[in-house]
Amino acid sequence: MGWEALEQWGEGAVRIEPLAGGVANDVWSVRINGQIAVGRFGSRTDADLAWETELLQHLDREGMNVPVPIPTTDGRLFANGLVVMKYMEGGPPETESDWRRVAETLRELHRLTQDWPQRPGWRSSSDLLHADTGTRINLAAMPPEGVVRCRAAWARLVGRQTCVVHGNPGNVRTTADRVALIDWDEAHVDVPDLDLVLPGNAADLDDGAHDIAAQASAAWEAAVCWRDEYAVKRLAEVRRV
Predict the structure, then answer these.
(1) Can you tell me the distance from the alpha carbon of 169 to that of 198, in angstroms, rounded to the nearest whole number?
(2) Is the pTM of this model over 0.70?
(3) What digits encode the pLDDT tens for the residues 8-48?
(4) Distance CA 197, CA 215 (A)
(5) Taking Cα atoms as reference points, which of 162, 138, 164 lies closest to residue 150?
(6) CA distance 234 to 73
(7) In what order do the strands lie in the sheet with 14-19?
(8) What's the rounded Cα separation, in Å, for the pair 33 and 70?
(9) Is 148 helix (H, G, I), strand (E, B) or coil?
């Protein structure tokens, strides 16, 4: 159906202009009932979108600033691959203080989701020590030596407590009084340190923890993006075994 699904948010629902939304989705600003919102259209399954929208509702109820899904006129949180969410004001973090607030927000996410089930079809970094595929990841497409390096980095996380990780903590909007995590398309259950490799080590990880997290994060981004230029660059940061 495509963007025609936007009609299910009301007769006056319209697209306005495209927004940056990564490679997996078509993201636009939209107008719903006279208010600016964000529409994201992609190929995720209904089970995947149900997981994401239920998570966002949970975090909103717990007081976090997240792009809450706006229901269709008949109460659904998504329709035919389209999700419409609240527009979050603010700009990217600029100062050391901003990034420390981002770290605090990520840790709150991790605290609130320690028992959350895995996103349908996804694998955690620990799962990928034995599995080859999970959503956008296909280790069989990577050079075998690169897979060995990635798995060695992920093996250092084994045994850690898991929770929901945002998966792309650079996608954040800050104002003077709040931090809002946006773009939850890569969120899944994994080890929280994957979210905490931030500019200036804003999460205050000690040297050992930061090294483990940085290597595992680089390996994850290499695998999930393979094989674009960014993924090749990230794989080069993962130490050889």
Answers:
(1) 8
(2) yes
(3) 999 999 999 999 755 678 999 999 999 999 999 998 999 99
(4) 10
(5) 138
(6) 43
(7) 14-19, 25-32, 35-42, 82-86
(8) 11
(9) helix
